[in-house]
């Protein structure tokens, strides 16, 4: 009998992945067992998730995994993007279909909320970045636009926690995902009653908190009967995918380090022991996200590979057949526009759109008309690398620390062109990998919860010993520094 087989369900905005983890001689063997696509579903201008299909894929993946591993998987945990939630009626039915965090209903709500409670008053409590897709703004919009729905809701459960509940777990909010709702008081470690009161939101719908590593239930009989496979224990891990990913950052020790969790978003941050909740930190756009084992992820969201994903979606609708690796390769050969930059965090890039045209328009505003698709990818990629440098300079300034290298984890770490450009602009070595950091972090956390690993330090040692990490050395070419200053000038930060 195999010991410790754990199944991770990792849901991202563009797809879900299931992995079985096996611990052998101090190394983690990670077996991908199921994969499916995920996307925004637009209906009458509203943006949703195809929620029940996601649940069904999880069930099918669980059955496949149990069959492949002869019914020996003994634990499962789910993580996903953050912010989005299901509302539950008094008798336990989901009300409606969960919205996608990019839904346009939150437009304007950041500013409107400051009239209910001033910005720094909120920051001193929640420590979060102010981004329009946060739970607080969705709830404010929901209350105004759909008061009946919030009126009958008895419970609010975040997406991964609700999926766990549908499998058989109790109802809860895991700490890392609660912490990024902008409604959770990080200092007092509880839902912030004053913010909820100021916003006119009901306190009763928010769930009790559990922590990553806690056992929260087991797969229910209706599910095992349907699937005809054995049950397994359900664990809470960092329900917020970024929290799980950072568990698998193969930092050499468990000291503080900088990272980019790179996927649809680029989460540029540092794992710290303390929170930084000063006004300056707020103004520079940093948030403090609750981490696994109560670490702090000091983070700034950069728009990330979403921009390229949206370009690819549009190009493929036009009948082109691009893949990410091929595009990055072609973009790396472009020599015509290496000093053309856009601000990847321009608000025009947030919602689904004809992205190649939006990027081209932004480039034209800086005096350059892109000639082809590869130039568009080149401009986005080098702008991302520069934005990373800008954020990391700010982290070093605000923490007063110098970090020797940068870890890039997540699917985006496979973009070798972006990895190398980041090293060049940052003048630091980049350690890229693991690509499946979130799934691996999810599994490592289950092992901590089950007492198989002692804690984060051991988890990271296992991860570093198991995953091939690729190092990119910075170039000594001085034009990168010169171009970086052009970037700062172009985005108005010079
Ligand atoms: C990444 C992520 C990120 C959030 C965003 C909404 O998947 O969880 O940390 O800010 O989705």
TrEMBL record:
<dbReference type="GO" id="GO:0008993">
    <property type="term" value="F:rhamnulokinase activity"/>
</dbReference>
<dbReference type="GO" id="GO:0019301">
    <property type="term" value="P:rhamnose catabolic process"/>
</dbReference>
<dbReference type="Pfam" id="PF00370">
    <property type="entry name" value="FGGY_N"/>
</dbReference>
<keyword id="KW-0684">Rhamnose metabolism</keyword>
<keyword id="KW-0808">Transferase</keyword>
<protein>
    <submittedName>
        <fullName>Carbohydrate kinase, FGGY family protein</fullName>
    </submittedName>
</protein>
<feature type="domain" description="Carbohydrate kinase FGGY C-terminal">
    <location>
        <begin position="260"/>
        <end position="446"/>
    </location>
</feature>
<dbReference type="InterPro" id="IPR050406">
    <property type="entry name" value="FGGY_Carb_Kinase"/>
</dbReference>
<keyword id="KW-0418">Kinase</keyword>
<keyword id="KW-0547">Nucleotide-binding</keyword>
<comment type="similarity">
    <text>Belongs to the FGGY kinase family.</text>
</comment>
<keyword id="KW-0067">ATP-binding</keyword>
<dbReference type="InterPro" id="IPR018485">
    <property type="entry name" value="FGGY_C"/>
</dbReference>
<dbReference type="GO" id="GO:0005524">
    <property type="term" value="F:ATP binding"/>
</dbReference>
<dbReference type="InterPro" id="IPR018484">
    <property type="entry name" value="FGGY_N"/>
</dbReference>
<dbReference type="Pfam" id="PF02782">
    <property type="entry name" value="FGGY_C"/>
</dbReference>
<dbReference type="InterPro" id="IPR013449">
    <property type="entry name" value="Rhamnulokinase"/>
</dbReference>
<feature type="domain" description="Carbohydrate kinase FGGY N-terminal">
    <location>
        <begin position="6"/>
        <end position="247"/>
    </location>
</feature>
<dbReference type="InterPro" id="IPR043129">
    <property type="entry name" value="ATPase_NBD"/>
</dbReference>
């Amino acid at each position: 009998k195999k010991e410790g087989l754990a199944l991770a369900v990792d849901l991202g905005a563009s797809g879900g992945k299931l992995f079985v983890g096996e611990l052998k001689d101090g190394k983690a063997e990670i077996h991908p067992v199921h994969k499916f696509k995920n996307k925004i579903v637009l209906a009458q201008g509203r943006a949703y998730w195809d929620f029940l299909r996601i649940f069904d894929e999880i069930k099918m993946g669980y059955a496949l995994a149990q069959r492949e591993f002869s019914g020996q998987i003994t634990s499962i945990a789910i993580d996903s993007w953050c912010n989005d939630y299901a509302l539950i009626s008094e008798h336990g039915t989901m009300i409606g279909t969960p919205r996608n965090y990019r839904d346009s209903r939150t437009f304007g709500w950041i500013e409107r909320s400051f009239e209910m409670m001033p910005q720094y008053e909120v920051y001193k409590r929640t420590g979060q970045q102010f981004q329009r897709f946060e739970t607080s703004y969705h709830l404010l919009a929901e209350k105004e636009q759909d008061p009946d729905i919030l009126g009958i809701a008895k419970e609010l459960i975040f997406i991964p926690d609700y999926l766990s509940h549908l499998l058989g777990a109790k109802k809860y909010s895991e700490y890392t995902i609660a912490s990024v709702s902008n409604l959770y008081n990080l200092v007092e470690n509880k839902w912030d009653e004053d913010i909820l009161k100021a916003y006119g939101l009901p306190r009763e719908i928010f769930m009790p908190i559990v922590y990553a590593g806690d056992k929260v239930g087991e797969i229910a009989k209706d599910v095992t009967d349907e699937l005809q496979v054995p049950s397994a224990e359900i664990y809470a891990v960092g329900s917020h995918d970024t929290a799980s990913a950072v568990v698998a950052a193969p930092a050499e020790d468990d000291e503080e380090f900088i990272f980019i969790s790179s996927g649809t978003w680029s989460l540029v941050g540092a794992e710290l022991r303390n929170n930084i909740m000063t006004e300056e930190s707020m103004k520079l756009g940093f948030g403090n996200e609750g981490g696994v084992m109560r670490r702090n992820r000091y983070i700034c969201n950069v728009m990330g590979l979403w921009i390229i994903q949206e370009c690819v979606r549009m190009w493929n609708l036009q009948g082109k057949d691009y893949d990410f690796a091929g595009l990055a390769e072609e973009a790396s050969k472009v020599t015509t526009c290496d000093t053309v930059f856009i601000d990847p965090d321009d608000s025009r890039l947030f919602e689904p759109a004809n992205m190649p045209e939006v990027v081209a328009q932004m480039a034209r505003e800086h005096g350059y008309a892109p000639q082809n698709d590869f130039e568009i990818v080149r401009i986005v990629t080098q702008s991302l690398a520069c934005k990373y440098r800008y954020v990391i300079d700010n982290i070093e300034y605000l923490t007063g620390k110098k970090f020797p290298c940068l870890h890039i984890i997540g699917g985006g770490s496979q973009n070798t062109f972006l990895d190398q450009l980041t090293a060049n602009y940052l003048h630091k070595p980049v350690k890229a990998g693991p690509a499946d950091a979130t799934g691996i972090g999810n599994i490592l956390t289950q092992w901590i919860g089950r007492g198989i690993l002692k804690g984060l330090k051991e988890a990271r040692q296992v991860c570093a010993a198991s995953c091939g990490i690729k190092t990119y050395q910075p170039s000594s070419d001085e034009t990168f520094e010169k171009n970086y200053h052009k970037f700062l000038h172009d985005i108005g930060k010079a």
